[in-house]
Amino acid sequence: FSLFDGTINGSTSMKVILPVGVPMKQAFINILTADKGNNEPFDKKPILFNSALSTVNTQKTIKLDFGANIGDVLLDSAKTISSDVYYNIHGNMTVESNVQEFLSSNFPVIFRINENDKILRNCSMTYNWSKLRNKIIIKGAIKDGYQFSDSAENSNIMSPFSSRNKTIGIRAEVITNSKLYADSLCKEQAMYTLIEKQRGVKSLSLSCGYIPFLDVNRSVLINLPNLNLFNSNFIIDSFSMNISDDPSVSINLTNMGEVIF
After folding, report:
1. N or C: which end of the chain has fewer CB within 10 A?
2. Can you tell me the distance from the alpha carbon of 195 to that of 116, in angstroms, rounded to the nearest whole number?
3. Could you give the C-alpha distances from 153 to 96, 135, 194, in angstroms and in order?
């Protein structure tokens, strides 16, 4: 992503304008294939785009003036469809919402951690309850006097973050996003934001030996009886690697079963 955030380049050499009504996938492709200043596109590789969003069109004109930071435009455009945008381990730009994957627990399981595994060096659980929101209300754009809106709430009594948990109660947040021009997009944004507001509230941190095939939003089966975790399905939030004579990796994960609403 350093191609787009200014670390390596990230600025257009010409003016690019994408009008209202362009399929969002095509908008991303047009941005990726813009001239980076040497008569070459930023990225020629195929983009992996959530098929459920293939019929969503741009709702406003996207302008990239000479020298504009493409990374900001890509991230901003992704937010209008409640999606993450990143490069996968194969080097393809990926645009996906992850909402349905969370609700169905349909993330690929890439490995398993057991209490006595030699690769496991340390593990701990941290909490950040101030971050928690269990109800999200999204207010979108106003068109012809009507304001698009919808909401999402974690009322799952099996979740420690539930609004039905008497200790926690309802922790609501109202967010206005004038870039959302449909109730369905407000709903998707509400579910996406609800998940993000719960990820990291209760975080499992692992320190392990080197694991070469890690990626965010991938599932790890955790069996750590000392933390009362028995074959629990966790999702990778973030990770960092230390490449040295003794390579290691630090991983932060969220329990999927506690986030699902």
Report:
1. N
2. 31
3. 21, 4, 7
202-209 β-sheet, strand order: 109-114, 219-224, 229-242, 248-255, 202-209, 120-127
Mean pLDDT of the chain: 83
pLDDT, tens only, 119-167: 999 999 999 999 999 999 999 989 899 999 999 999 999 899 999 999 9
Collapsed DSSP state (helix, strand, coil) of residue 32: helix
Sheet of 84-87, strand order: 48-49, 93-96, 84-87
SS3 22: coil
Reported as type and span, the H/E element at residue 183 is: helix 183-198
Query: Mapping DSSP to helix (H, G, I), strand (E, B) and coil, where does residue 19 land?
Result: coil
DSSP state, residue 23 = B
